[in-house]
Specification:
With 353 residues, the protein is of the alpha/beta class. The chain has two domains: 187 residues, Isopropylmalate Dehydrogenase (3-Layer(aba) Sandwich), CATH 3.40.718.10; 156 residues, 3-Layer(aba) Sandwich (Isopropylmalate Dehydrogenase). It has twelve helices and twelve strands. It has a ten-stranded mixed sheet with strand order 2-1-3-12-11-4-5-10-8-9, sandwiched between helices. A two-stranded antiparallel sheet has the order 6-7. The chain starts with a strand and ends with a helix. Bound molecules: nicotinamide-adenine-dinucleotide (NAD). Nicotinamide-adenine-dinucleotide binds next to helix 4.
Length: 353
Amino acid sequence: MKIAVLAGDGIGPEIIAQAINVLNALKADGLDFELEHGLIGGCAVDATGEPYPEATHALVTQADAILLGAVGGPQYDALPRPQRPERGLLAIRKALNLFANLRPAILYAELAEASSLKPEVVAGLDIMIVRELTGDIYFGEPRGIKQRDGQRVGFNTMIYSEAEIRRIAHVAFQAADKRNKKLCSVDKMNVLECTQLWRDVVIEVAKEYPQVALSHMLVDNAAMQLVREPKQFDVIVTGNMFGDILSDEASMLTGSIGMLPSASLDENNKGLYEPIHGSAPDIAGQDVANPLATILSVAMMLRYTFNQEEAALRIENAVQKVLQQGFRTSDIAAPGLQTVGTQAMGDAVLSHL
Ligand code: NAD
């Protein structure tokens, strides 16, 4: 198993170090892998002038999986757009055709108090958002800002081909099939033709998965239902822009973005695994960042790319035990409670592996 490691910026190197400790602990027990490090984001801009250098592209192309920390920082905000660290992320997703973004939102019972919603609304929450990642309005052409009738107009293009919709629908149906067999497809078909096609194609694909119960919801209603009664959902599938917004909303149901991993997969389950949070420049270098989202991303990597379910469960169980024992980084601690740092949290997970 070849794993490319792209630590990135801000808290990236600190949280990745803890994830690598977990991988190495599993290596001692017979898991066989090689790690190779590369640059992405701001650190790549500093070293090469590009957020996604050619050498990184070569490295990730020949890897089976990629473990990524986070990119970005205020020192890069004034750069021209093509050089911004976040462009590195869009570039790697597109270059590797990572069209399926899987974002679980799980609320560990121990953290129910950390959610901004009432504990009874979120306790036991376990939903999976499947977001299409390489199409939609984020990539559609034409796009730009132009002069028209003496003023500037801005425009983007929401576009999906039926092949793009079909392949993400298959990923979502298969994910639902492995869980509680409920899939909710989110669109805006009452207003947008592009998402009328989305709904039509999802209904066609559903015929291949009669065991999965399919429902449809308009995105505005879905945003509301996620905070009203989030436990009604099992798997949600949606396009790139709606998924971007809904998955961030869902993440906050669980209390902290420091807890949530993600996977971005291609057609052969090659994947990029990363925490959903950013580079958190406000806390970088202080040994306070929560490493659990990154450690849980390693569990997703073992499950989805390497089919190592047992090793994945070992990591997830170790995280759960650590939370049961009361270990908390500051982002998930109730006010006044004692907290541990990044390194100590990583060590606690290791001790329970
Ligand atoms: P952020 O996710 O970095 O931080 C938001 C808040 O959450 C901050 O208060 C931060 O301290 C806290 N936080 C984030 N991760 C945490 C962790 N593991 N433990 C404890 N607290 C944590 O979002 P932002 O502040 O909007 O963006 C900062 C930079 O990250 C920007 O340059 C942005 O473009 C970039 N970004 C990158 C990614 C990515 O790499 N995938 C995603 C989002 C934002």
